[in-house]
Design brief:
CATH topology: VC0467-like
Number of domains: 1
CATH architecture: 3-Layer(aba) Sandwich
Number of helices: 8
């Protein structure tokens, strides 16, 4: 099932478990990140990111834009599965998802859940998760995982061995969403190259995401842990969208999902 946001007495809680994060800290995170995106005001982006919602295809600018998607892109919604990556088209105008790269972490009859990989903040883990065991003096940045459940906490880890208390997304990539396993993992002081923490997530119904892929809002890429833990997340979308455009310009296959 899609995890939902949980609020307790004005504070934010870890999904299903009760790790508390001060809501005000996350507002600061969202504001700092949103201010870096050109073309929309920080206030508008903040409002979009902080309001729990599922992305709606109606946020596209016009019917003409949707027609352009169909003409210039060919994508396969059947390729959507846990572990695949969604790369936003240049024309996806919704500020919550513009220029994003998203890892699908869950897909079932209830819908699809993913984490935005390239919206890194300048707020350290020690501040965002103050009071959580193992976070003291942790200067690694937290990521904004999406506009839904923006007070929920998740982590992605890369491990060659099976990770206790975490769900395997694909290959060596695991998802933490429960308090005790996350505390244990943080206590081991994992490097930022193999461990990222996210606040919030992206969520769709199955039909919503299929329609968005079919009209060309998203490119579908095969699972790749190098993309998940890319050392330069700020430029990840730019590099991936250029790769896609070069593929089309070169007359290659139009099947979505360049590796």
């Amino acid at each position: 099932m899609l995890p939902g946001p949980s609020r307790i007495h004005g504070r934010a809680s870890f999904v299903e478990t009760g790790i508390f994060v001060e809501t005000g800290i996350f507002v600061n995170v969202a504001f700092k990140v949103s201010a870096a995106f050109a073309g929309v005001t920080a206030v508008l982006v903040l409002a979009a990111w902080m309001t729990p919602h599922r992305h709606r295809v109606s946020s596209f600018p016009s019917d003409a834009a949707r027609a352009d998607f169909r003409l210039v892109q060919s994508q396969k919604a059947d390729h959507l599965e846990v572990g695949t990556l969604l790369v936003a088209s240049r024309d996806l105008a919704d500020p919550s998802f513009s220029k994003t790269v998203i890892l699908i972490t869950q897909k079932d009859d209830d819908g699809v859940v993913g984490l935005i990989l390239n919206r890194v903040t300048d707020v350290p883990v020690s501040r965002a998760l103050e009071g959580l065991k193992g976070t003291e003096e942790n200067s690694d940045p937290v990521y904004v995982g999406g506009p839904v459940g923006n007070t929920s906490v998740f982590a992605l880890a890369k491990s060659a061995a099976k990770t206790e208390g975490a769900d395997q997304v694909f290959g060596d990539v695991y998802l933490f969403r429960r308090k005790a396993p996350l505390e244990l993992a943080i206590g081991k002081r994992p490097s930022a190259e193999r461990f990222h923490i996210y606040l919030g997530y992206a969520g769709w119904t199955n039909g919503q995401l299929r329609r968005e892929v079919e009209i060309g809002a998203w490119f579908v890429f095969h699972p790749d842990d190098a993309m998940v833990f890319d050392p330069n997340p700020e430029t990840l979308w730019t590099r991936l969208i250029k790769r896609t455009e070069q593929k089309f310009a070169g007359g290659g296959s139009r099947r979505a999902g360049a590796a």
